[in-house]
Design brief:
The protein is mostly beta strands and about 1000 residues long. The strands form 14 sheets. It has a 22-stranded antiparallel barrel. A five-stranded mixed beta sheet has the order 3-8-9-6-7.
């Protein structure tokens, strides 16, 4: 591996970069009055093609979409604007790692469904290292997941020239197994000015974040569990008092109603029971008041120049974020350099380089665990003042004993914010060098070498007296991940009469090296000193290799007849180090075609301008993660020892195979002021590489096999229209709609009709694969129902319990859509976009716990009943099998704890449908005379907003909920979700 890496670095040092190949414009090319239907898009390997020549969908998004509404993650600007594209975040903090999928999920490995991200022709590795902890871990003594961000969300949006989305496997087949789920092709700016003039561009924005949506908390009843005093009245007492025994140790809010009475309560001045009874009152800002207005300051400057031989661009940007949770946020700095020079008539050399530095003293933890702020929000009671926690430490107990007066299992929120710190220093280098040599007008060679190097340092600090670490905890992680890609591509193109031919052939060498060093101080000798040398017990994880190499050869042949009929053939063969020698070589082809029917049929109507028919077929192979073939030992927490892995490896693995077929049509009407395209597709993935349960007597819990088939079918539609367009006013409407249906066609024979559990969250929600079912199917316990649909209760007055888990719903939407409007009037522009989805289910752990504890308004039902009891609406089953109305009264605490118990996935799951006002922007462009008087070329100021409004039936923060488990983003489950931000801001753009 070291020798191969040296070879790759040598190739990079020789200086190579891709130049794209542009097909000749046809004499019959029709420039439409609104947009160019011969638009050039970037396809696989960075090759530029005319959109009309493609037999698959390649949607292009311009730089304006990323510039006009600043985001911490550029990818969020794509949300709702591309049919079939879904951006899933975990709602876990300001860095916002995103999982991008195109046309749904195709793999039973839920982490293997993301689109490939390609920057300037070089793929990004996509490796994401988590904390190693699950989202659900309350009382486990462990730690929490932290969202440290993806590599690709570090890209500066002001550096993006355009983004092309290659949706199907055919479109991205030349990227091999990594392109099986489609690709996002990012082209960065390279410097384009006239006559060699230097242009300076300055962008500055300031934005403010507030919480978009809160749970519907109740503030009518306080802490308690229906306890009564000696007079038979509901009461409250913090600690035992003259009024009765203590009721202040519960997290439930089934205590007395706030009605002007006085009780013995917690007094922060004495750090215990108040000396006198105090007013029993709610503190309605005792959760919301913890959150602050977040701010983001973004500034970038670029300098560019170009002439007929050379283009140059350099940029520097800074993003300084203070997030909505106190003492959290990040600083990000980007430097980018682009250089392109025509050395001679035959040789052109180009290079792009980007350096990113991200630093944070503290990023929020997420999940349901004692140490998470989400956990505190769930357990906070209506009668507790937030200010009681602010001192953090008890008197004379600094850094030793925190203030958490109601439960030692619930950490102080200010301790979480200011003492439980998750720091990161991350350096990311990406770039490529490309050389293109034209032997003659028909034949050229391109050599490109690209790198992606990540160097990341993380620290985790946990103080004394925290619920999971009574003596403190400190952790250091050092992550180094390097990927090298080298491509050599020969291209021949020529015309033979009406026939045009372009053929390319080449190869790729890809090497990935990953190293993680992990050191943990379990307990601190001296409180507040976070150093490994201060450890009571030091655990060291010795670095172990996790390297991978893939060698490839590939080819592309394109034919066109008179620019009326286009046909493409591609072929690729990979040799992967993660597969056994007998199976590591795998071949896959594709074919695509397009017909310009409007030209063939000579449709010259003013109302019908363009009609294109396209179709494609492909087969794409996919390998697996390193070290799946042979048994090995993992390093252990105990120094000098090792432990056997729990999975039995498979030395005979075969590559997965994905077969894709799609067809569609593109239309243009009314002088191209109305365009429409529709696509239907089918993906089938066979021989999936999955882990299945193993007999425990083998010594392993799982084993890896090839088995199973998944099929995706879907429809995508996009419409673009200019209802009004004249010199002073323009109105542009863009809409998209997509539907994806997933079906599991077969499963491993070992299951013999039983479901295969692909994954689970919190031990209650199971993603089970069943033949005839779908990926994303959620299983769990449900209520039991009588034939007439009424809920069945037992003789104890509580719901009847099922002994088997059942299908609850699917995490994925039935369909998704987006609508954008853009208006221009003289020097003003206004744009806004809506998007949403119909269907899908979300299980909420937070809803379970807050309902069980009486924190939400729906738990007010029955509060006025005598003796604090309630009768569940439903029936009981009689001995003869018939049913009669339930009349058994039970306590409110028992009823809500049972009906919304954690294992009852049904009652804690909700429709995930939503509509969002995703973005809005209003811009004023200063008149030319003012701009010129300032020696500028352009000047504009904008007001923008994101996530401004939302409609949904989901009762918690956001229906786009997902769970961050270690590094995996799992949709359909909310466990300790952090609030979603509503953003408003102002932006200044200036060009000199």
């Amino acid at each position: 591996m070291q020798k191969r890496t040296q070879q790759i670095i040598l190739l990079a040092a020789l200086g190579l970069v891709s130049v794209t190949h542009l097909q000749a414009q046809s004499k019959k090319a029709k420039l439409d009055s609104v947009r160019n239907i011969d638009e050039v898009v970037v396809t696989a390997l960075g090759i530029k093609r005319q959109d009309k020549s493609l037999g698959y969908v390649a949607e292009k998004v311009s730089s304006e979409e990323f510039e006009k509404t600043q985001n911490n993650n550029w990818a969020q600007a794509l949300e709702g604007k591309v049919a079939g594209l879904k951006i899933q975040t975990a709602g876990a903090g300001p860095l916002g790692s995103a999982k991008i999928t195109l046309r749904g999920s195709i793999s039973m490995n839920l982490d293997n469904n993301e689109a490939l991200i390609v920057v300037d022709g070089v793929p990004l590795g996509g490796t994401n290292t988590g904390t190693g902890n699950a989202a659900y871990g309350a009382g486990s003594g462990g730690d929490l997941p932290v969202d440290y961000g993806n590599n690709f969300n570090s890209i500066n949006p002001d550096d993006i020239e355009n983004v092309t989305i290659l949706k199907g496997a055919t479109a991205s087949a030349l990227y091999g197994s990594r392109g099986a789920n489609g690709a996002i092709m990012i082209t960065t700016k390279s410097g384009k000015t006239k006559n060699g003039k230097i242009r300076v561009t300055f962008n500055s924005s300031t934005s403010f974040d507030t919480v978009l949506k809160w749970p519907d908390w109740q503030y009518e009843y306080g802490q308690g569990t229906l306890a009564k005093n000696k007079d038979g009245q509901f009461y409250y007492s913090y600690g035992a008092s003259a009024d009765g025994v203590s009721t202040g140790g519960t997290s439930s809010a089934f205590g007395p109603k706030f009605d002007g009475q006085y009780y013995f309560q917690y007094d922060p001045t004495v750090e215990g029971q108040s000396l006198e009874r105090q007013l029993w009152r709610p503190y309605k800002d005792n959760v919301k008041g913890f959150w602050q207005m977040g701010t983001t300051y973004s500034n970038s400057i670029s300098i560019e120049s170009s002439n007929d031989k050379t283009s140059f661009r350099t940029s520097l940007s800074a993003v300084n974020n203070t997030w909505m949770m106190p003492n959290t946020g990040f600083d990000r700095y980007n430097y980018a350099l682009s250089f392109d020079h025509k050395v001679s008539k035959k040789l052109r050399v180009a290079s792009k380089f980007a350096y990113n530095y991200t630093k944070s003293d503290n990023l929020p933890s997420t999940g349901y665990n004692n140490q998470s702020i989400s956990y505190f929000m769930i357990f906070q009671n209506p009668n507790v003042d937030l200010s009681w926690y602010e001192p953090i430490w008890k008197k004379d107990k600094y850094q030793v004993d925190q203030i958490h007066p109601f439960s030692t299992f619930i950490d102080n929120p200010y301790l979480i914010a200011y003492e439980m710190l998750n720091g990161v220093n991350k350096k990311l280098i990406t770039g490529n060098i490309t050389a293109t040599y034209n032997f003659n007008n028909n034949f050229e060679m391109m050599l490109r070498s690209g790198i992606e190097i990540t160097d990341e340092e993380r620290t985790t600090k946990r103080p004394y007296s925290s619920a999971n670490y009574l003596q403190g905890y400190y952790r250091e992680q050092y992550i180094k991940n390097s990927e090298y890609n080298t491509d050599l591509l020969f291209t021949y193109k020529n015309n033979f009469g009406k026939w045009g031919v372009s053929a390319s052939a080449g190869g790729n060498i890809r090497a990935n090296e990953y190293v993680l060093n992990d050191y943990r101080a379990i307990g601190l000798r001296v409180p507040g000193i976070y150093q490994l040398t201060n450890a009571i017990s030091l655990n060291t994880r010795i670095a172990q290799p996790n390297d991978k190499e893939t060698n490839s050869v590939y080819g592309l042949a394109s034919f066109n007849y008179d620019n009326l009929w286009f046909v493409d053939f591609t072929a690729r063969n990979d040799w992967s180090s993660t597969l056994p020698k007998a199976n590591r070589s795998y071949f896959y082809p594709s074919v695509s075609t397009s017909l310009i029917l409007s030209d063939i049929l000579k449709m010259n109507s003013k109302s019908w301008n363009y009609w294109k028919l396209r179709a494609s077929w492909s087969q794409v192979g996919n390998d697996t993660q390193p070290y799946k073939l042979q048994q090995f030992y993992n390093t252990s927490d105990f120094v000098g020892s090792a432990e056997n892995i729990a999975n039995f490896q498979n030395p005979n693995l075969k590559p997965e195979m994905n077969q894709n077929i799609e067809a569609g049509m593109d239309f243009s009407f009314f002088k191209n002021r109305l365009t429409y395209n529709v696509t239907v597709y089918q993906n089938s993935t066979k021989d999936q590489i999955v882990n299945v349960p193993s007999l425990i007597e083998t010594g392993y819990s799982t084993r890896t096999i090839n088995a199973g088939e998944v099929r995706n079918r879907g429809v995508e539609m996009t419409l673009n229209a200019f209802p009004i367009k004249n010199k002073s006013f323009q109105w542009n409407v863009t809409a998209n709609w997509s539907m994806n249906k997933n079906r599991i066609m077969s499963l491993p024979a070992e299951f013999q009709g039983e479901p295969y559990t692909m994954g689970s969250v919190g031990g209650v929600v199971f993603f089970n694969a069943v033949v005839g079912g779908s990926l994303g199917d959620m299983y769990g316990y449900k209520l039991q129902y009588a034939p007439d649909g009424q809920v069945i209760y037992g003789s104890d007055g509580l719901t009847a319990k099922s002994t088997e888990i059942e299908y609850v719903g699917n995490a994925y939407a039935k369909w998704r859509g987006g609508l954008q409007n853009a208006f221009k009037y003289k020097n003003f522009s206004l744009s806004f976009s809506f998007d949403g989805q119909y269907g899908g289910r979300v299980y909420s752990q937070s809803h379970h716990k807050m309902s069980e504890q009486g924190k939400l308004t729906h738990t007010l039902v029955g509060r006025d009943n005598p003796n604090g009891t309630i009768v569940g609406v439903g029936v009981v089953q009689n001995p003869d099998g018939s049913f009669s109305q339930n009349t058994k009264a039970v306590s409110l605490t028992s009823y809500y704890a049972d009906y919304y118990r954690r294992a009852n996935v049904e009652t804690n799951s909700f429709d995930a449908s939503y509509v969002k006002l995703r973005e809005a922007n209003i811009t004023f462009y200063f008149p030319k005379q003012i701009v010129q008087s300032l020696n500028m070329s352009d000047l504009s100021v904008s007001l923008f907003g994101r996530n401004l409004w939302m409609w949904t039936k989901f009762p918690l923060f956001d229906p786009e909920a997902a769970t961050l488990n270690d590094s995996s983003i799992t949709p359909g489950v909310e466990i300790g979700q952090l609030p979603t931000a509503r953003t408003v801001g102002i932006q200044l753009n200036a060009k000199f």
